[in-house]
């Protein structure tokens, strides 16, 4: 098989890049390890920046987004007692959209056949070859038979654990990493949210987040130790803990219901540089991870592929390679700012096992400062709504 751009991974980064390139007439094939149902079964991001929704609008894959996405003009930080509202619209003129990653993925998958975006699902043993040359290729197993896909470029959109990043020699790479000593336990339930906006809470017992997917579906998270076992968290225990950590006002408004999904995700900050080696590019979680506080991961994947689709279409349409040369540097400039914001909000809102009384007072003082400072609220709002491309 032959294509112009071979993409490894059909998560949000791979699907979005595939569509953006198809819209420019580039021939694309995506090779994905899992089945469509598996990809859709992972409950992850919930908050989209304007930069991300603009891409979906530009592609015309926005009918359900417009009908079902919830426009949020603010969110709150809670300190165990009060809610500090960050007025995103008033401070920045912008807003974010609550629309689940699952739905974005579903919409992009559904539009693939009519736009000539070829996706091979359930590909086994995907491996990258000859990325140092102008004729790289992938090998994989399809229905038990060996397959080979030749391309001009390969793009690794295969998440944190995929093979693409590992194909870049360690001698040319730099890794920056911070692992946090806790994870997030999430619950999804068909109950109305406790508030019409999101609440990020810093409580003595640890962080909690009240989010949603729709007016009838809630998504909540609590900070838990890394060795916590899912089996130890009955639905009742989790609802009790959320009610305490979200504080008296929001906590008392929680509607309880059976979990549709419960999972624990570790928290990590990670950046791999550079994001291009020879004919291989990296985009999304394959190159960088942010802790979820601040909702930046999926949005960074979207900005990466916005830059990369411009670069690759300039190459294929006008034989112009400057944007390809500049891709890594351009993407990393935005990534590092999102890394900074996610790290800062994570540090402000979580209980750290080695936290001293002084450290705790610093968190409380910072929240108190934010509560009274328009400048501090503006800095948070402009990062949350998304920095310009
Ligand atoms: P992925 O979604 O990981 O997709 C990678 C794809 O590659 C997968 O389909 C995988 O099956 C495939 N793959 C892997 N290995 C191979 C292989 N060997 N061969 C072929 N294919 C392979 N981000 C936000 O912006 N907002 C939020 O509100 C938010 N909340 C989050 C909450 C949680 C609990 C978590 C865990 C994450 C959250 N994120 C959020 C982050 C967001 O989910 C990720 O950043 C996003 O999924 C990255 O997309 P991606 O396409 O780069 O990678
Ligand atoms: C969600 C996840 C986040 O990481 C976040 O900051 C906000 C919302 C969510 O899954 O709804």
From TrEMBL:
<dbReference type="InterPro" id="IPR050641">
    <property type="entry name" value="RIFMO-like"/>
</dbReference>
<keyword id="KW-0274">FAD</keyword>
<dbReference type="InterPro" id="IPR002938">
    <property type="entry name" value="FAD-bd"/>
</dbReference>
<keyword id="KW-0285">Flavoprotein</keyword>
<dbReference type="InterPro" id="IPR012733">
    <property type="entry name" value="HB_mOase"/>
</dbReference>
<keyword id="KW-0503">Monooxygenase</keyword>
<keyword id="KW-0560">Oxidoreductase</keyword>
<feature type="domain" description="FAD-binding">
    <location>
        <begin position="2"/>
        <end position="342"/>
    </location>
</feature>
<dbReference type="GO" id="GO:0018659">
    <property type="term" value="F:4-hydroxybenzoate 3-monooxygenase activity"/>
</dbReference>
<dbReference type="GO" id="GO:0043639">
    <property type="term" value="P:benzoate catabolic process"/>
</dbReference>
<dbReference type="InterPro" id="IPR036188">
    <property type="entry name" value="FAD/NAD-bd_sf"/>
</dbReference>
<dbReference type="Pfam" id="PF01494">
    <property type="entry name" value="FAD_binding_3"/>
</dbReference>
<dbReference type="GO" id="GO:0071949">
    <property type="term" value="F:FAD binding"/>
</dbReference>
<protein>
    <submittedName>
        <fullName>4-hydroxybenzoate 3-monooxygenase</fullName>
        <ecNumber>1.14.13.2</ecNumber>
    </submittedName>
</protein>
């Amino acid at each position: 098989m032959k294509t112009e751009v071979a993409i490894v991974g059909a998560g949000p980064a791979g699907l979005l890049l595939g569509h953006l390139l198809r819209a420019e007439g580039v021939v694309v094939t995506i090779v994905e390890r899992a089945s469509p149902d598996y990809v859709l079964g992972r409950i992850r991001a919930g908050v989209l920046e304007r930069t991300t929704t603009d891409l979906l609008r530009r592609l015309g894959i926005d009918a359900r987004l417009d009908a079902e996405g919830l426009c949020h003009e603010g969110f709150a930080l809670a300190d165990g007692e009060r809610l500090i509202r960050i007025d995103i619209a008033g401070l920045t003129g912008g807003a974010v959209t609550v629309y689940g990653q699952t739905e974005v993925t579903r919409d992009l998958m559904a539009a693939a056949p009519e736009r000539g975006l070829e996706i091979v699902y359930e590909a086994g043993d995907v491996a990258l070859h000859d990325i140092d040359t102008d004729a790289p290729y992938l090998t994989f197993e399809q229905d038990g038979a060996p397959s080979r896909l030749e391309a001009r470029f390969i793009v690794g959109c295969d998440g944190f654990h995929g093979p693409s990043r590992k194909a870049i020699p360690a001698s040319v790479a730099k890794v920056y990493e911070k692992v946090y000593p806790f994870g997030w336990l999430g619950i999804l339930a068909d109950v109305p949210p406790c508030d019409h906006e999101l609440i990020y809470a810093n409580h003595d017992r640890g962080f909690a987040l009240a989010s949603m997917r729709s007016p009838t579906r809630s998504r909540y998270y609590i900070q838990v130790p890394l060795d916590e076992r899912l089996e130890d968290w009955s639905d009742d225990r989790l609802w009790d803990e959320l009610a305490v950590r979200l504080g008296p006002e929001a906590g008392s408004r929680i509607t309880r219901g059976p979990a549709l999904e419960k999972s624990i995700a570790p928290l990590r900050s990670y950046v791999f540089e550079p994001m291009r080696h020879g004919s291989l590019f990296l985009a999304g979680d394959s190159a960088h991870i942010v802790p979820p506080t601040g909702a930046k991961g999926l949005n960074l994947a979207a900005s990466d592929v916005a830059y990369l689709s411009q670069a690759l279409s300039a190459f294929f349409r006008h034989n112009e390679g400057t944007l390809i040369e500049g891709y890594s540097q351009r993407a990393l400039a935005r990534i590092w700012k999102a890394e900074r914001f996610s790290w800062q909000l994570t540090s402000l809102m979580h209980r750290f096992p080695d936290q001293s009384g002084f450290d705790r007072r610093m968190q409380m003082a910072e929240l108190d400062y934010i509560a009274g400072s328009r400048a501090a609220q503006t800095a948070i709002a402009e990062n949350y709504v998304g920095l310009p491309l």
